[in-house]
Amino acid sequence: xxxxxxxxxxxxxxxxxxxxxxxxxxxxxxxxxxxxxxxxxxxxxxxxxxxxxxxxxxxxxxxxxxxxxxxxxxxxxxxxxxxxxxxxxxxxxxxxxxxxxxxxxxxxxxxxxxxxxxxxxxxxxxxxxxxxxxxxxxxxxxxxxxxxxxxxxxxxxxxxxxxxxxxxxxxxxxxxxxxxxxxxxxxxxxxxxxxxxxxxxxxxxxxxxxxxxxxxxxxxxxxxxxxxxxxxxxxxxxxxxxxxxxxxxxxxxxxxxxxxxxxxxxxxxxxxxxxxxxxxxxxxxxxxxxxxxxxxxxxxxxxxxxxxxxxxxxxxxxxxxxxxxxxxxxxxxxxxxxxxxxxxxxxxxxxxxxxxxxxxxxxxxxxxxxxxxxxxxxxxxxxxxxxxxxxxxxxxxxxxxxxxxxxxxxxxxxxxxxxxxxxxxxxxxxxxxx
Amino acid sequence: xxxxxxxxxxxxxxxxxxxxxxxxxxxxxxxxxxxxxxxxxxxxxxxxxxxxxxxxxxxxxxxxxxxxxxxxxxxxxxxxxxxxxxxxxxxxxxxxxxxxxxxxxxxxxxxxxxxxxxxxxxxxxxxxxxxxxxxxxxxxxxxxxxxxxxxxxxxxxxxxxxxxxxxxxxxxxxxxxxxxxxxxxxxxxxxxxxxxxxxxxxxxxxxxxxxxxxxxxxxxxxxxxxxxxxxxxxxxxxxxxxxxxxxxxxxxxxxxxxxxxxxxxxxxxxxxxxxxxxxxxxxxxxxxxxxxxxxxxxxxxxxxxxxxxxxxxxxxxxxxxxxxxxxxxxxxxxxxxxxxxxxxxxxxxxxxxxxxxxxxxxxxxxxxxxxxxxxxxxxxxxxxxxxxxxxxxxxxxxxxxxxxxxxxxxxxxxxxxxxxxxxxxxxxxxxxxx
Lengths: 434, 434
Known about the structure:
- 2 copies of one chain form a homodimer.
- By secondary structure, chain A is of the alpha+beta class.
- The first copy, chain A, contains 16 helices and 16 strands.
- Chain A has helices at 18-37, 51-55, 60-65, 84-94, 137-153, 166-175, 182-190, 192-195, 197-219, 226-237, 242-256, 321-331, 353-365, 379-388, 399-404, 423-433; strands at 41-42, 48-50, 68-70, 76-79, 102-111, 123-132, 159-165, 263-265, 276-285, 295-300, 314-320, 343-345, 370-372, 393-396, 406-411, 417-422.
- In chain A, strands 1-5-6-11-10-9-7-8 form an 8-stranded mixed β-sheet.
- In chain A, β15 and β16 form a beta hairpin.
- In chain A, α1 (18-37) runs antiparallel to α5 and α6 runs parallel beside α10 (226-237).
- Chain A is elongated.
- At the A-B interface, α1, β1, β2, α4 and β5 of A face α1, β1, β2, α4 and β5 of B.
């Protein structure tokens, strides 16, 4: 006989037990409801794509982390590592069937073979929503508001969205003739929270010299409110620009909706990735600042330029379901989930099993979940099973009850029993209990 | 400038546009509701696993079809090709945290690099539900009834579940001393619908001779009803057995529930795969017999024996979402799905954009989905967009309305307009329209 194979999963991958899976589904349901309330519509794309499609614009990190292999037809294929690149390919492929502005959401698994330290997984779920085909403050704001309302819907009130605009920082850098090294500088600035101001200064000095490094550090420091930070950004970057005007418009909207206190203009936010061209933002939970951003995104000039000559400006957001779930767990705000069954029909008499299944059907038809205990076991074992499944009511029926057309039911929480009920009366009583 | 990358997907893979994706989600929701009404609980497992775990018991076909590669740590890994093997590994890994009988469902994508002819996909979605840790007619029946009710819930009434029991056929084969070649014989019998009786006879004759081939063909022919087929099976196989008794018990249950007409005892059903040991069944739609089985499964003695010494008898079912969706499309029974938005706030005046977003928030707070048209465009373009998104109501607000605290709304179906409404009155009117 062959040995036992160890039932292990790969590092960075996880099983989800029923309670966890129900909780995740509960969070997803709340997000979907919020996204749909803003008019976002669902799409799906394949998990495996041509590597060429996924890596077209790939940076070094992505290349190394992507799961890539040759398929049965010796094609160079890979697993998607985000939902943005497949969406770009999707828009290019289906432009003729779609309309713009197109607002999609997509909740799905993505894969990155990265270091699994610090609660990172190699298989994780992203919840993305984007507006493509519109370049306006209104579209930017709708993404930000959808993110904000998503957290309110999850019963998380202390949310802080740190927002900036790539264009204003770029104007500052152009003014100091450091525009050619802006990607590098953005990446250093992006590390501010992680490595601290002194280290950022020292790295910047090596690129732009002490004076300009000081100016950049002054620029990225938020002032006491949105408006004064914006004034400083305009002043230091050499005057108003499309970027600063966009931020002003967004400020008017968060004020009009009375949600200004949740939006922080924070010029140190750059988002490391190269493709953003407009607003960039990260969302933090006030109660859990150390957990990092629970949602982030920004505006990109032309989503699908790798795949089409159509111009498709867009703005989007990605919420990481795994980190979000961990955060909600820590806050005690995970949606209640107790997967199981409401009503358990006990098996007292083997000859009555067909009748038990008919009874269970009556209970289900009344709108309650119900199952028949499937084996001949002692009552103690059946009650223990009911407990595991969080059943609230047991249905009890022996030969006498069947002959009389009645059943007994037991409220498993209060231990109260109701005997000799007609089936209709039993179902009514179940309704009162549940 | 680099050339354009063709935005193609791999053969056997598909994008889902919003309407398709909404329809699929609608079908999934109905299945989930049915599964949960029977007390099944959700789980999830990784898409990538150790190849050793997935192929432990692998047959030749699976080996060839599996997507297999070396990951970044040079581990031999593969994508799951069904949801049963990962479930077996899951049960072995989590036995201590779970309870039995354990009833799980799992709706997820699986991957097989097989021939894509005849509407088969390489990435497809399975909807599985199983009961593990109980070996009884009651558990078998609950799986069958869940399958049957799933189709009723999908508004498909003409469902026919063809059922048999591996043990009875095996007893027949043992009697003719062909037990050693039973796997081969089961596979031939399984092809009856595909290759016809003459071809099956000829293949069987090469293995067991003409007389026994004739006996097998007589055995696998259904009689006019469940009971007479069962009598014949018992007679030809040499008397009652655990298998025939199990079928009798199931007959009592389908009769008790008044659903006998949807269950066909069909001894030609064997299910090709080796691991079934008890009942086996396939579900067909009376209106679409040619589409093949839309759900199938059976009982296995010991689900997780590769990974644990715990005994875990089980019975399960798998519904293929892709074929099911195709069938529902052909029958015109796909759940209605028109993803879009209910209410569109038109953009008449750029200065009012913040106010439009506040209005949209009021509409959403009243429970309706709502979005603001995000760009400065002519009204005709905005109405065309509303049409694409199936918006039913437009909200119209210029400077005068804003100053007066009113809005106009337009029913986009009837073309009727309602002007000068307070915002509360407008929301009430929207409620009447929707």
